Amino acid sequence: MHRVLFVTDDWANKKALKSELLGGGFTVTAIGSAEIFREDFVAPARLDVVVADLERCATEAAKLCHALKRERPMKEAPLVLLVTEAHLGRLDFGWGVEDYLTLPVSAKRLAERLNFLMWKLHKVETKNGFSQNGLVIDFERYEVHVKGEPVDVTYKEFELLKFLATHPGKAFTREALLDKVWGYDYYGGTRTVDVHIRRLRSKIEVGSAAYIETVRNVGYKFLEPSGD
Question: Using CB atoms within 10 A of its CB, is residue 75 exposed (0-12), middle (13-18) or buried (19+)?
Answer without folding.
Answer: middle
